[in-house]
Specification:
Blueprint (H helix, E strand, L loop, with lengths): L10 H11 L5 H26 L6 H33 L5 H17 L9 H4 L14
Helix pairs in contact: 1-2, 1-3, 2-4, 3-4
Length: 140
């Protein structure tokens, strides 16, 4: 997804939708991309919830917190870049199904873990730990 439209202004979501809709998508890749869509939503909610909370403390504390948040957003951007590169390589025929699915799963797991490391995690994120294994409960 280099120059294509964004889905609701989210490059990550657009990439996951391409994986789901693309002819290269296996059932396992589609399931993993579905997890990625859910994880992307949690990341978005984490950022929005943080922006809606009021900050207290000194200007130095606010500056430190802003720098920590910027670092986290840079990490989220790196995850997005890794997904974009992975999808480009898959569509270009550089990766077989197994390698693509394994790399996609690693990226989705990073995305699922990202809200847990937010400096001031929203109350709902603590109650929703990242998924482990497959949602259906079947062995991977």
């Amino acid at each position: 997804m280099t120059d294509g439209p964004l889905v609701r202004n989210s490059r990550l979501l657009g990439l996951f939708v391409e994986i789901v809709q693309g002819p290269e998508g296996t059932l396992r890749a589609v399931e993993t991309a579905g997890r990625g869509i859910t994880a992307e939503a949690r990341c978005t909610l984490t950022v929005v919830a943080d922006k809606m909370t009021t900050s207290s403390g000194s200007p130095a504390e606010a500056r430190q917190r802003s720098l920590a948040c910027a670092d986290r957003l840079i990490e989220l951007g790196a995850i997005e870049d890794d997904l974009s590169e992975l999808w480009s390589r898959r569509r270009g025929g550089e990766l077989d199904e197994a390698a693509f699915e394994a790399s996609l799963l690693r990226i989705v797991m990073r995305l699922e873990a990202w809200p847990q490391s937010w400096p001031r995690m929203p109350y709902w994120a603590a109650a929703c730990p990242p998924l482990t294994g497959r949602a259906s409960g079947r062995a991977a």
